[in-house]
Amino acid sequence: MTDLPLTFSPEVDQAMRNGAPVVALESTIITHGMPWPQNMETALKVESEIRSHGATPATIAVMGGRIHIGLTESELQTLAQAQGVRKLSRADLAACLASGEVGATTVAATMIAAHLAGIEVFATGGIGGVHRGAEHSFDISADLHELARTPVSVVAAGAKAILDLPKTLEVLETLGVPVIAFGQDAFPAFWSRSSGLNAPLRMDDPARIAAAHRMRKTLGLGGGQLIANPIPPEDEIPREEIVPVIETALTEAEAAGISAKDVTPFLLGRIFDLTDGRSLDANIALVLNNARLGAAIARCLADGQARLPIDETCPNS
């Protein structure tokens, strides 16, 4: 482990030494998801939310040939204003480290780094998945395979709603990834509480989720869990409202000949415009909500609640 190119922030290092709960955070939401200074403001809010709920945030990024597990506020500000930051997944994480470039971690890369650092819980916005038309383009996010191989519990508001959600759930089932809806039967769809699809599993308290995480390790089952946490009701854009907007954006992308890695940024930009900015407000709200649940699960794991009978809940901070 000492040979790993990991640099822990002082805050995360202390938490890890004390066995305190830690929640990993990705960095592409900072470098590729929002403009300056809103990206910095949101990053600080998410970290603050985790601290206020009894855990330590560990925002992960690659800088100077090292994987940084937790960033100081100065490092966070540097990353938030950096230009030409690479968007890293499993395929290019090692190359970025070897070249000394600055890289922001996606869901897949954050899971890898968190596992290397000994962090078991990761809170994000939404995972990637099967893109629409994937039967022709074969465009499927590496996030799905990472969930099948890396033992980190990922809290997200489902998969991004611009994706093919039925196919995404099918692939997750094929890969053996537990998909657990938190507090409801429906699989959430990022900006909306329901995708119109049922989640394969449902759990209503963090201790059960933590216990399932531990049980997978006991059974020798590889991979992590996807905890699908619906956006709060007051912040959602209902499915019947957002679906026509997504369809309009998809039609415009096809007409413009936009493809591959350019599709998602284009769609998110158009959806922002078509909703007069409500999509970004909802995005921030759901990330904060996921941070709260991630902190609760991490507390259960750190406090030993994962080994208690399943009807016992994790104590509040």
TrEMBL record:
Task: Fetch the Pfam families from UniProt.
Answer: Indigoidine_A (PF04227)
Lineage of the organism = Bacteria, Pseudomonadati, Pseudomonadota, Alphaproteobacteria, Rhodobacterales
Q: In UniProt terms, what function does this protein have?
A: Catalyzes the reversible cleavage of pseudouridine 5'-phosphate (PsiMP) to ribose 5-phosphate and uracil. Functions biologically in the cleavage direction, as part of a pseudouridine degradation pathway.
| Membrane spanning residue stretches | none
Mention one GO molecular function: hydrolase activity, acting on glycosyl bonds
Description of how the protein assembles with itself and partners: Homotrimer.
User: What is any one of the record's Gene Ontology cellular component terms?
Assistant: cytoplasm
Name the family. Answer: Belongs to the pseudouridine-5'-phosphate glycosidase family.
GO BP terms: nucleobase catabolic process
Annotated protein name in UniProt: Pseudouridine-5'-phosphate glycosidase
